[in-house]
Design brief:
heterodimer, A: 383 residues, mainly alpha, 0% strand, globular, B: 172 residues, HLH_DNA-bd_sf (chain A)
């Protein structure tokens, strides 16, 4: 209890900042619903690991939902996230009260500076987007605040009203992050696309120049447009091309294509062909439906006896052979099945359900797998 | 590590575990009349799509697909059999055969055009892709990046779905 009190005391100074933050995340159905994976996954297929941090924070918050204080305590990744951005903006760190003070930030910032470039890049992008939208009236800041956590903004927007930011930041919370992140990006892309640079460029030019030198990984060269707007645009384009590259790997026969439009064409054709195949198979299935009772038996037996069977494991005739899939992953779950006798056990459906349950227990439920799918080929963000 | 290797077992397991019982139920309920055959196709198609949506939860497109399916089932139940039960299915059927060629034509034209027009071409293609993926015109995928991510997962899941369906049909 004593330690709790101490921690609470520690948190108290920052609670004024982060109070509403946690409260929002507590009571927020949005946060605890299934939309979390959507946000983090849909945005991060391309390999950005911002969603991973994002998801880390959200995940931790969701787990310890009882006490808002404990949420912060049990969220070391949150602390990590803080200095990453603040490290870039050294001049404004003095404005941050509470545990996220300067020396702490610097220590962690230095160690994290060489961290994953993806995360920095994405964080920076969100900083840019934040700068873009955040330099509008303060009322807008509150709504548009993206992923960066509250101490960041108070740290970053030094030229703005820190008090306002701190309090408004409290209202943002993960909910805002979760809810506004796509909107922010949308806003970003909409702005970039619509070329509505005037107001935001002027406002952001000041804060845009300061962080410019810190965006070492963004390659903001001299002579190129360095305002946040163009930087954001460039980052957005990089992100898009990153995802195009991933798509290129997915779609068979696209390894040598270099044009974006051509690539999109291939994707269109591939999606259409897949949909046509589904429709064809669906009609076929409807025709043979009465005999379907045997299917499960046969599928399961085939899988168990021949774990490398291509059909179910993704090596089907229509699949690109370059998409190698090590059957060990699948057989790892099935090998636990004791009966390899061709005389199949009488309850294959039960077995399948058990395997499904095993998969779920082993963490193969979509919450984790889809995250892994969304990342740079990495299952966990720490990798 | 290929993320699809991670996704595949759970997707396949869920897909099969949803679809097979569903199809079995259809087989039990359907009576062998001509009028029912058409419905059987639609029902099977519905179950196939629903299996896809449920096996790949967590994506914007899967949510959109599930939503559409449920919506259309409600419409179907209320409006009678005459109404097509899948609006998005109609989209597929309309866009697939009709627009398959124009996509290829765009391919040829694109190379002769200058850059700003190529950007427009890209935009056209992206718009077209939005029609293909469920929920593509929705608010979740307004972002181009989001759209591309969703496309990645959608393509992978479609592949898996095709493989599962093929394997289910292999032994008939």
């Amino acid at each position: 209890m004593a330690s709790e009190n101490d921690d609470m005391g520690l948190e108290m100074s920052s609670i004024t900042i982060l109070n509403k933050y946690s409260n929002t995340s507590e009571s927020d159905p949005f946060f605890s619903s299934g939309w979390d994976p959507i946000v983090s996954q849909s945005e991060s297929l391309g390999g950005s690991s911002i969603a991973s941090h994002y998801h880390l924070v959200m995940e931790n918050q969701g787990i310890s939902g009882t006490s808002h204080v404990s949420q912060y305590q049990s969220n070391p990744s949150f602390v990590e996230l803080v200095p990453k951005l603040t490290g870039f903006d050294g001049g404004n760190l003095s404005q941050i009260p509470g545990p996220f003070s300067l020396p702490q930030c610097n220590q962690i910032a230095n160690s994290n500076e060489r961290g994953s470039k993806n995360s920095l890049r994405s964080l920076d992008e969100h900083r840019i987007s934040e700068t873009l939208v955040g330099t509008s009236p303060n009322g807008k800041i509150r709504k548009r605040s993206p992923e960066s956590d509250s101490p960041f903004r108070s740290c970053k927007n030094g030229n703005e009203e820190p008090g306002m930011d701190l309090s408004s930041e409290g209202c943002d919370g993960l909910r805002e992050q979760a809810g506004k992140k796509p909107k922010t990006e949308q806003n970003l892309s909409a702005n970039s696309r619509g070329k509505q640079a005037a107001k935001q460029d002027k406002d952001s030019s000041q804060s845009g120049e300061a962080p410019k030198e810190n965006y070492i990984h963004v390659r903001a060269r001299r002579g190129q447009a360095t305002n946040s707007h163009s930087l954001a645009e460039r980052l957005r384009r990089e992100k898009i091309s990153e995802r195009m590259r991933l798509l290129q790997e997915l779609v068979p026969g696209c390894n040598k294509i270099t044009g974006k439009a051509v690539m999109l064409d291939e994707i269109i054709n591939y999606v259409q062909s897949l949909q046509q195949q589904v429709e064809f198979l669906s009609m076929k299935l409807a025709t043979v439906n009465p005999e379907l009772n045997l299917d499960l038996d046969r599928i399961l037996s085939k899988d168990i006896l021949h774990p490398q069977s291509a059909a179910v494991l993704g090596f089907g005739p229509g699949t690109n052979p370059s998409h190698t899939f090590s059957p060990s992953t699948f057989t790892g779950t099935i090998s636990g099945f004791p009966n390899t006798n061709p005389g199949f056990p009488p309850l294959p459906q039960t077995v399948l359900e058990n395997e499904v349950q095993n998969l779920f227990q082993m963490g193969f439920y979509p919450g984790s797998t889809m995250d892994g799918f969304g990342l740079d080929g990495q299952l966990k963000p720490e990798m | 590590m290929d993320p699809r290797k991670i996704m595949q077992p759970s997707f396949t397991a869920k897909y099969v575990s949803y679809l097979v019982p569903a199809l079995t139920n259809i087989g039990k309920q359907a009576s062998p009349s001509v009028g029912r055959c058409i419905d059987a196709e639609k029902i099977v198609r519905y179950e196939i799509d629903m299996a896809l949506a449920l096996s790949a939860e967590g994506f914007a497109w899967s949510h959109a697909l599930e939503h559409k399916l449920r919506l259309n089932v409600d419409n179907h139940n209320h409006a009678g059999k005459s109404q097509s039960y899948l609006a998005h299915d109609d989209d597929h059927r309309n866009t697939m055969p009709v627009n398959h060629e124009p996509a290829a034509k765009k391919l040829k034209v694109d190379r002769t055009r200058s850059e700003p027009e190529a950007a427009e071409e890209e935009e056209e293609r992206l718009t077209y892709l939005r029609k293909l993926i469920p929920g593509g015109s929705g608010e979740m995928m307004v972002d181009d990046e989001t759209l591309l991510s969703e496309l990645g997962s959608y393509v992978s899941c479609l592949e898996l779905q095709v493989n599962v369906l093929r394997s289910m049909l292999q032994f008939n």
